[in-house]
Amino acid sequence: MPEELAGTTIAFLVAPEGAEQVELTEPWKTVEAVSGNPTLVSTSDGEVQAFNHLDRGDTFTVDATTDTARVDDFDALVLPGGVANPDFLRTDASAVAFVKAFFDAGKPVAAICHAPWTLIEAGVVSGRTMTSYPSLQTDLRNAGATWQDEEVVVCRSGPNTLITSRNPDDLPAFNAKLTIEFAKTPA
User: Fold this and answer.
1) How would residue 3 be classed by pLDDT, with cut points 50, 70 and 90?
2) Which residue of the set 13, 41, 69, 113 is catalytic?
3) What residues does the DJ-1/PfpI domain cover (predicted)?
């Protein structure tokens, strides 16, 4: 088994309800497959309810909350999408502060689908080149980002590496890039 992320701890930030399940589970499995340590972070403890588009999916146990988790304990951040998930996160001050702290610390962040809404709220997209679910392109442009319709975009023109993808169909490319980019970060 490859060990590209051995010794790294990756935060996966989701709301208590609404994360697109495959955008949580597939990157999570990828991190585990390359010996990384994924950690589920949410705004409250207990369990989070994932969704398969509009249908309830599985529940997942929270490992840490945004009000107690320390960015120093993580090497990178993954932001799964789903419409409700980032819409909730962008209204929670501790979640927004948690996300912004990864940029302030120069740590890599990977966001897929609607997750860039949280990045917009954190004020970290201006001057960045990125992609997202197509309905967010105007929001991203209005926040100062350059939007591209690509399966995955890696942007290094900022304080950290930012990896973005459009939707679940892009997960193979998203997972491949996050593995490569997260491995460049010293554990």
Assistant:
1) low
2) 113
3) 9-178
